[in-house]
Amino acid sequence: MNDFLAQTLRGEMSTPSCGEQGGLRWRWLGEGGLELTPTAGYQRAVALSAGIHGNETAPIELLDRLAGDLLTGRLPLTVRLLLVLGNPAAIRAGKRYLHSDINRMFGGRHSRFPLSGETVRAHWLEQALTAFFAADVLTGGVERYHYDLHTAIRDSLLPRFGLLPFQERPYNLLLLESLTAAELDALVVHREPGGTFSHFSSEQLMAASCTLELGKARPLGENDLSQFDAIDQALRALVSGTSMPVRRVAPMRLFSVVRSLMKRSEAFQLHVAGDAPNFTPFARGTLLCEQPGEAYRVAHEREWILFPNPSVAQGLRAGMVLTEIAPGELAGGVLSQPAD
Ligand SMILES: [Zn+2]
Fold first, then answer.
1. CA 209, 238, 234 angle in degrees (round to 5)?
2. Does this entry carry the keyword Secreted (predicted)?
């Protein structure tokens, strides 16, 4: 077992198999799923996923290199680790998805979509993650982490950012420390549930979870992986149990989602250019969208747009509006209640 990505891309090893090498036991869980367990014991279980969107290639290459270094013993492993390539069929095709976006389907929402390879895959991914974390239930005391790695399609004024799922319990401090070390430019805190992989693992599996958007997507093999050094180093520190690298850039900015702009009508109009970069700011009073019976104007002194997409299907989210909050508002992992 030494070539996680290539074997996945060739569609090989689709049946479970296992072995031992480099101070760890490996177990192939099925297409695009590899579990690594250190022979010397562990206190954390970490799931790293990439390729939930098949054309977001740089994180796929990062996970492949990480797997290679662990399997050859170049990097010691001190956590139980699950490596997941989310949508192998879409990765092979170089497409975001083939039928529907998997990252809207988690938490059982796949049953509301027309049956496709992606609804089947979303269900498989839920089961694989659930089984992975459940393996430690009897031993207890094992902390759970899940990082879902993406790259954005559009430009972003803050190029690297994380999205924390909505949760009522405090955010995990090691997770926050690792995101700081990963030199993210910004962290966005969701205020309501969603169908993402990280929301699923946070809500249903009690993992410390985050979705990461790590710059812009390029074709497989054409990425300049040096741009991903900081996240790579932070993940390597996490899985090998060493201290987090020191952040060398400006402090991470913190945002909270004010509202989702839902497209409820075919007459919906988004007054934000379809190619507007993420984190484009708008001043108070700016009309951002309108549809019959409803208009949304910027309510705070300044609000920022994230993932604007006027062409989504009716009933889906055409963008999110953010406010910036002081870093201290996430002190101790707890986000204070919104002021309004
Ligand atoms: Zn993505």
1. 90
2. no
Question: pLDDT tens-digit profile of 188-224?
Answer: 999 999 999 999 999 999 999 999 999 877 777 777 7
Nearest to 76 by CA among 1, 24, 142: 24
Annotated binding site: 53, 56, 150
- Please report, for the chain, the start and end positions of each structural domain, with discontinuous segments joined by +: 4-240, 258-325
Binding residues for Zn(2+): 53, 56, 150
127-158 residue pLDDT tens: 999 999 999 887 778 999 999 999 987 889 99
| Candidates 3.40.50.720, 2.60.40.1600, 2.40.50.630, 3.75.10.10; CATH matching 258-325 | 2.40.50.630
Q: What is the CA(33)–ligand 1 centre distance, in A?
A: 18
Ligand 1 is an ion; its neighbours by CB within 5 Å are 53, 56, 150
CATH of domain 4-240: 3.40.630.10
